[in-house]
Amino acid sequence: MTTRLFGEPVRRREDARLVAGNGRYLDDLGADALAVAFVRSPHAHARITGIDVDDAVDVEGLVAIYTWEDLPEGVREPLPLLIPHPALTHGRTAYCLAKDVVRHVGEPIVMVVAADRYIAEDVCERIHVSYEFLKPVVGLENAVEGPNLVHDDVPGNVGAHMVQEVAHRDGRAARDVIAAAPHTLEFRLDIERSACMPMEGKGVYARWDADDRSLRVYSSTQTSTSVRMAIAAKLGLPLPKVEVIAPDVGGGFGVKIVHPWPEEILVPWAARLLNREVKWTEDRREHFVSSAHERAQVQHVKVGFDDEGRVLGLDVEILHDHGAYTPYGIIVPIITSTQLLGPYKIGSYRVEFFSVYTNTVQVTPYRGAGRPQGVFCMERTMDKIAQYLGKDRTDVRAANFIQPDEFPYDQQMIFQDGRPLIYDSGDYPASLRKLKDLIGWDDFPAMQAEAAAEGRRIGIGVGCYVEGTGVGPYEGGHVQVTSDGRVHVSTGLTSQGQGHETVFAQIAATELGVPIEKVSVVTGDTRRFGYAVGTFASRAAVMSGNAIALACRKVKEKALRIAADALEADPADLEITDGMVHVVGAPSASIPLATVAVLSNPLRYAFDEEAKRATQFATSGSMDRPPVAEGQEPGLEGKDYYSPVRSTFASGMHAAIVETDPDTAEIRILRYAVVHDCGKMINPMLVEGQIHGGVAQGVGGALYEKMAYDEYGQLLNASFMDFLMPYVTEIPRIETDHLETPSPLNPLGIKGAGEAGVIPVSAVIAGAVEDAEKIVIDRMPISPSDLYALRDSSRTSGAVSLLRNTQ
Amino acid sequence: MKPPSFVYHAPATVAEAVEALAAAGADGKVLAGGQSLIPLMNMRLAAPGQLVDINHVAGLGEITAEAGGVRVGALARHAEVEASETAFAAQPLVRRALRLVAHPAVRNRGTTVGSIVHADPAAEMPAVLALLGGSVRARGPEGERDIPAAEFFTGPMESSLRTGELAVSAFFPSTAGGTAIVEVARRHGDYAMAGVAALVGPDHARVACLSVGAVPVVVDVTEAQGDWARAARLVQERIEPEADIHATADYRRHLTGVLAERALKEAADA
Amino acid sequence: MHDVTLVVNGVPRHARVPARRLLSDFLRHDIGLTGTHVGCEHGVCGACTVLLDGRPVRACLTFAVSVAGHEVTTVEGLADGDRLSPVQRAFAECHGLQCGFCTPGFLTTVTAFLRENPAPADDEVVEAVAGNLCRCTGYQNIVKSVHRAAELMAEEGP
Questions:
Q1: Structural domains in chain B?
Q2: Boundaries of each 2Fe-2S ferredoxin-type domain copy (chain C) (predicted)?
């Protein structure tokens, strides 16, 4: 019997400190640090012609003002393009502080360091920047049509252009297949911008130790190891002289995986230069205009299908709004292009995207990272096929599903990790059955008719997705058992609320057979673990979870070997239960793991009673062998890495019932059902929590949130007053059911769960509103005002039957 | 997002407050609940040179029944007015409208008179005051005056309060007949895209509309008494909605019509 | 500069601050109680909610000088010594938090709410927390936590 913790709804170990107000978020640190504020561009596109600081220099409490001119080599170069790709022929990144030209409202121009943030903002107000206005490029189609350019040297504003083709098995190209298909449809879809919007913005706090010539930096980041390397490189410091720590992080959702943010370079640079602690805490307005957004795409779709609704060919052309810069490469449109395929066997596929620059905030991954757009495209396509053929929408999906016996299923594309898009496992028909039962799909028509008789409009929608999770290249885990019996686990990736301290402790406790109370977990601290990639793409549990499990297995093997010596038993006969190593079936022949830890480290000096047992005159080991056997290391610890051949593919299906008000056009979600398959669940309570939160963000994206830019590139709703993140009153109760199809790719059989909830929501809600209103919904989000306008135009065009396209 | 500096006054009496306000002139601003002013200051969209904080002035927090209505003091928090049985007995619409004002934590600090003085055409309490034909009592260097609601609201965020004047209370009259207020906001607690407060008596009917003009738009629909669909059309003809990122002008006009009909029906049935 | 003394979690706390010092910054930076979080600084998100004389208010929309002499309860003041309050325990038990950044605002709001309404209906719970934004949980477990806290309080008595 080993301690059963894996798979249990273990309560979170993070919470005791967080509910007591004892969390330590970025701005809770550095009480005496100087504060930073920035002068940011109020214009979307302009040439800086002068910066006048005369009014500012006398402000009491001012410490320093920096512009691009003041930056040293390394810091004055453009920020790195993190993920190069051959198709990204015109990748462009920003400077830490704008050099000559600003390309979106919010771009930092001047850095101010002062005694506190109030004073820093006073100084910013007194710095006068003069500009020569350039024509702003706003809106995807405006950008493509030109003639105005975001970057002078990027013709047509196209940063990347990529075509991927998967031919029909008979060799024909998708466009040929579509041309010859029995039925075809052609349509356009639009998705607007939203953003991660974690409750805590970004932030950086740096301490320079002049005696030690070393730098310690705290950043509210999703990747402390990578921030560390960037800082060392930019500031010209030896890597061992830089440590980066992600403290408690108040949500990330993607925006904090981007790095280095200008502030992550500038704040440490200033701290070293001034030899003072320096801190920047992003405020909400800064977060709106100078972090990152995502989602905006225009998609042109052509599909050919047969009488059963099976897709024979799909041709999608995507305009992807990349904002002003491409620091994260073209990961988002690549994910859209590949994950668009969902749980389906698409006969032949052509996808082409243009990644387009506009004078708006840069676009980098936001939870889901391109998948919501891809799923919107595919699921709208499925709905349209069903409508066209007069079939049930779930039947058309089922007709296209990859079957359970077809795994591994090769979609014959290259995924975002540069590796083949091969699905490892899944059972889509079973998921759909569960979903239909959960929402009552087959009973809905009667319910809809009943509502109609009362003058109410209700509709149902469904959406399916497959999500590549746990992308490589690797993560590592380190596990150390100390002589007090405590187990110290560390991994390099970071946490932003997922509960890693809990799930990694569950894994370690289960693997080692120790009480979870003995286990402590540290994440995102380069002092403890230096090699890591980061927390994104629903990868933390898969990557670090497996790495920690592997490290634990090493430790366990060593523990059993040492214990076998002490107990004069065969290691194969030993097991660890509740922290005691014992002979299987003979609990009395046992030794505490703590003692094994003592024995693992042969000592000359005793530092306490327990340690005496490992000193040179106390041990009874063989005199023929060295105290530390050849090939062994002292200490009961182990480190291992997990590096998968490719991603593992989670999946899920959602359904919703909505009601639309015939008079006010308000849209209310009456029910929301989720069936989710992330392989084996480490902690079902936390998986549910991830789903709830994801769906809530999805509802935000479907009904409330958009970034409203005007033609001048001004963000009109850069506040929580007008960017409508849902409150509790906007989010329905979410009903969930699970399927556990283990991944064959990793030792724990797990898949990622972090992003899933958000992915299909817009598609589901669009389908449900369409069903309620009998009006085509091709643009999300949809507001009451939008729905009113759609009703109006469908009335004037007399097009209630708009759905039934003709060839 | 930190507020700019200002000179702070903390008067203990209305007279001191008026004196400080008069001395500050156009540079002065009253701080009561601060729930509208401080966000603007944090965003540095407002930068009053002097703030006259009336939170320490005695006697301004009272809610008093008077002949024909209820008087609400300048320091009465929304939540206190909402909970006040005195106010409810005199004019039940006040409580119903206050429940639509932002969220409880904001209502715990924000004041009803402050909301009226802020004169946001999207806010509920100016519309209620306008619908009921209430008034604002102002104290200035030249003494005290009552400003009828019809003259009080002069534009978006603009009132006829003079420089140096302090609004010391608002008066909500009791009314014969039923009242109602309905609105549609994007999220619960947001400023409404449209909203209508209605008052229907045996021989009169009128509405006040939010978010469809520079000030609360009061429309007398007595002529359509009982035919609320027609009344709603009359209302739609009178309003001048504008588009913003949340709603088109067309939608606002439509919505105001729908809500006018609903509010009038509810008021007539009350 | 103004001498401001507030009774914070039952203890008089003093700092000399400019009039413009927001109560949120006073608590966090002047007296070092960083449990109160700042999420928007325009009064919408509710992360900074503290109890002013027992009632929830936005600390980011309050000048410290304006509430001098009053009582303030922050998240640090909810526990009884080392014993977490029923509301705090319920949030932990029901997975009512993820990143934890918005949580202090929910905890203070709910503490005041349950004091006035110890056995709330579901819609009352929703209304009570309707002014607080959370980006992680989707709120479902927060609502569950409030009901659970009410149960715990009923079990344990005053």
A1: 7-56 (3.30.43.10), 63-173 (3.30.465.10), 178-269 (3.30.390.50)
A2: 2-78
Phi first, then psi, for residue C76 (nearest 5°) are -65, -20
Q: Any bridge partners for residue A300, and if so which?
A: A188, A317
CATH architecture type of domain A32-134+202-281:
Alpha-Beta Complex (3.90)
Residue A626: asked if its preceding bond is cis (omega within 30°), the reply is no
Contacts of A122 in chain B (CB under 8 A): 4-5
Tens of pLDDT, residue by residue over C26-81, are 999 999 999 999 999 999 999 999 999 999 999 999 999 999 999 999 999 999 99
Note the pLDDT tens digit of each residue in A415-462: 989 999 999 999 999 999 999 999 999 999 999 999 999 999 999 999
Question: A443 — contact with chain C (CB < 8 Å)?
Answer: no
Domain that holds residue C25: 2-77
Contact of B5 with chain A, judged by CB distance below 8 Å, is answered with yes
Q: How far is A13 from chain B (nearest CA, A)?
A: 30
Q: Are B199 and A741 in contact (CB under 8 A)?
A: no
User: A392-471+646-803, which class in CATH?
Assistant: alpha beta
Q: What does DSSP assign to residue C63?
A: B
- Residues C67 and C101 reside in one and the same domain: no
**Cα separation, A238 vs A254, whole angstroms:** 29
Taking CA–CA distances from B259, the nearest residue in chain A reads A664
List of chain A residues whose C-beta atoms are within 8 Å of the C-beta of residue C18: 118
Closest partner residue to A724 (CB to CB) among B43, B187, B255 is: B187
Q: Do B8 and C130 touch (CB under 8 A)?
A: no
Q: Do A122 and B4 touch (CB under 8 A)?
A: yes
As for how many domains chain C has, the answer is: 2
The CA–CA distances, whole Å, from A50 to A39, A45, A106, A800, B73 equal 13, 15, 17, 58, 52
Residues, chain A:
807
If one counts every other C-beta atom within 10 angstroms of the C-beta of residue A485, the result is 19
Q: Which subunits have 3 or more CB–CB pairs within 8 Å of chain A?
A: B, C
Of C29, C53, C77, the last residue of a domain is C77
3-state secondary structure of A60: coil
Chain C neighbors of A284, CB-CB under 8 A: 39-42, 45
Enter the ipTM: 0.98
Nearest residue in B to C108, CA atom: B105
User: Would you call A733 and C35 a contact, using CB atoms and an 8 Å cutoff?
Assistant: no
Judge if C51 and C96 occupy the same domain: no
Which residues of chain A does C98 touch, with a Cβ-Cβ cutoff of 8 Å? 251, 497-499, 689, 693
Which chains lie within 8 Å of chain C at 3 or more CB pairs, if any? A, B
Q: Where are the domains of chain A?
A: 32-134+202-281, 392-471+646-803, 473-642
Taking residue A345's Cβ as centre, other Cβ atoms within 10 Å add up to 15
Structural contact between residues A477 and A653, judged by C-beta atoms closer than 8 angstroms: no
C145 interfacial to chain B (CB closer than 8 Å): no
Residue appearing with tokens 């719970």: C125
Longest dimension (CA), chain B: 55
Q: Beta strands A214-219 and B7-9: pairing type?
A: unpaired
Q: What percent of chain A has pLDDT over 90?
A: 91
8 Å CB contact of B255 and A664: yes
B173 to chain A, closest Cα gap in Å: 31
How confident is the model at residue A669, as a pLDDT? 98
Angle value at C-alpha A596, between A591 and A600, nearest 5 degrees: 155
Look at B103 and C131 and tell me if their CB atoms are within 8 Å: yes
The CA angle A221-A223-A225, to the nearest 5 degrees, is 125
C-beta of residue A787 within 8 angstroms of C-beta of residue A770? no
Cα C68 to Cα C55: distance, rounded to the nearest angstrom:
16
